[in-house]
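User: Sequence in, structure out. Go.
Assistant: Echoing your sequence, followed by the C-alpha cells.
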Amino acid sequence: MYYDKLDSQIGIIYIKASEHLLEAISFEPFDLVIKPNAITNMAKIQLSEYFKEERKEFDLPLNIEGTNFELAVYQAMLKIAYGQTKSYGDLAIASGHDKAYRAVGSVCGKNKFPIIVPCHRVLKADGQLGHYAFGSDIKAKLLELESH
C-alpha cells in the first residue's frame, strides 16, 4: 500500500492507494509512513484543484466495494453535481430503493472516499446538514466552497 497526505483549508487529508486504485481518503491518519505513488499523487493534485475551485469532478480509479445496494448508492452519489445537493430520500429513489433513506445514510457514513464520492452533498429532507462522519463543520465548509 501507498500513503500520502495533503494539507487543505479543512485540515489534513490522508490518502491510501494500492498500485492501481485509490483505496481510501480520510481526515484521520492511517498511522503509516508516507510512501506516495502515482495514484496518491493524482489524488493530491485533483484534491488540490478542487480546493482551489478549479475542479468540479474527479477522475480517479476508485476501489469501491459493497453490496449491490451500496454500489447503487455510491453511483447515485457520484451523479450529484458540484454545488448541488440531494436528500437521503432522493438518493434512495435514485439508487432504486425508494424507502431506504436510513440505509442510504448508513452507506454515506461509511464512504471511504469523502469529497470524491460526495456524501457531503446529501442532506436531510428539511435541508439541514444531517450527520457527516468527519463532523458537520467540515460538511458545511465543503458545501460553502462549492456554493461559489
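User: And one key feature?
Assistant: Strands lie at 2-8, 11-17, 22-26, 86-87, 122-123.
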